[in-house]
Amino acid sequence: MRVGILSYPMLFQREGGLQVQVRETIAALNQLDATMSAELVDPSRQKLADFDLIHVFSAHNGNFRVVESAVDLGVPVVLSPLVSPSWDRNTGFRARVADRLAGKISSYNLQTSYAQTKRALQLADLVIALGEAEREAIVNGFLTERAKIRVFPNGISRQFFTARAELFRQRTGIIGPFALTVGSVSPYKNQLGLAQALEGAELPLVLIGPVSREEHGYLQEILRSPWVRWLGALDHEDPLLASAFAAASVVALPSQGEVFPLSVLEALAAGTPVVMTEESALQLDGSGTMLRKVAWDDRAGQREAILSLARKPPGRASVQAMVEQFTWQRVATQVAACYRELVPAHAV
C-alpha cells in the first residue's frame, strides 16, 4: 500500500509537535512490513491519484483543499485534524452563526476557518483524534459523525526514556533544581506568564524553543528576570533536549491551549513531573501526583503546583511507568489497520 502524507506547505520550516508526529509516524509505518510504504507528498511534482490513500495532518491552514482534491479523485482520506478540546456545542454554534454572517456580508465569497475545518472533517473517510477530549470537540463543535472517529494517542521516542541529567548539567553548568518549559516562544505559549508566576520563588526557569522575529521583544521581556535563562532552539533528536527533560525538577507548559502535547509525554518519559494547561486533550488516568493541570492564566495555581512538585517530586520510575505504553510502533500498527479498512485488498 502506498500512503501519501500531507500537511500545510510551511510545516517543516519550524520545529514542533506536529513535525515530530509526522516524521515519527512515517518512520514507524515504513518499519511495519514490506506491504506498507509511506512518504511525504510533494504536490508540485506528485499526483494524489498515484497513492492508494492520503493521510492529512491538521485540518487547518487550507488543508481542506487537499482533502477535497483527494475525495474528487476517489482516493481514501484519513485526517488527523488537531482540533482544540475547547470546542463544544456552544462554541460550534457561535462559529456557524459567524460563518453564515460572513457569507452574507461577502456575498459568499468569504469562508471562515471554522467552515474549512468542518468541511475537511465531513469529507474525510476516517478521522484520528489524539484523545477523548479531542474526539468530543470534533463531534460537538463540528457536528462530525462519532462512528468515523478513532482515538490513537501520539508516541514517544525512546531517547526520552533513557535520558540522563549529566549531559545537560555539564553543557549548561546548571546544577541545582529548575523548572523547564519547551516550545516556541510566544504569548500563546505564555512563557512570560510562567516567569511572572515564579517571580521571587528562587526556582530558576529554563526556556528551550525557537523565537520568531516578531516575538523578540516578548523574549526580552521574559529575560528581564534574573532567574530566567533561554537556551535557544534544540532539534528533537538532540541528546541535550532529552537530558534537559531528565535534569529538570518540573516541566511546565502554561500555554493557552494544547491538543496532545508531545513535550509533556517526553517529560514524563524522562521521569519528570509536569504542570500544564487545563485546555488539552491529554488525559492520563491516575496521574494526579505527577501531572497537574492548571488554567493558563492562573499564576497562583501554577506557582503552587510547580513548587509543590519541586519540593516533593514523585519517583522517576513511577512517572515513566505512566507513559511506557506510548510508542510510535503501537501508533503505526493502529493507523495501518485503519488504512487497510479503507483500501481494497488488491491495493495492499
Task: Summarize it.
With 348 residues, the protein is an alpha/beta fold. The chain has helices spanning 17-30, 64-72, 89-105, 113-123, 132-142, 166-172, 191-197, 216-222, 239-247, 262-269, 299-311, 316-321, 328-342; strands at 2-6, 37-40, 53-57, 77-80, 126-129, 149-151, 179-182, 205-208, 228-230, 250-253, 274-277, 291-294.
Structural class: alpha/beta
Could you estimate the helical fraction of the residues in percent? 25-40%
Q: How far is it from the N-terminal to the C-terminal residue, by CA?
A: 4 Å
Could you please say which CATH topology of the largest domain applies here? Answer: Rossmann fold
Quick one: CATH class of the largest domain? Alpha Beta
Which overall shape is indicated by the principal axes computed on the Cα atoms?
globular
Average the pLDDT over all residues and give the rounded result.
Answer: 93
What is the strand content? 5-15%
Name of the CATH architecture of the largest domain: 3-Layer(aba) Sandwich
| Radius of gyration of CA atoms, rounded to a whole number | 21 Å
Q: What is the count of structural domains? A: 2
Largest sheet: 6 strands, parallel
Keywords: Transferase
Pfam family, one: Glyco_trans_1_4
Protein name: Glycosyltransferase
GO molecular function: glycosyltransferase activity
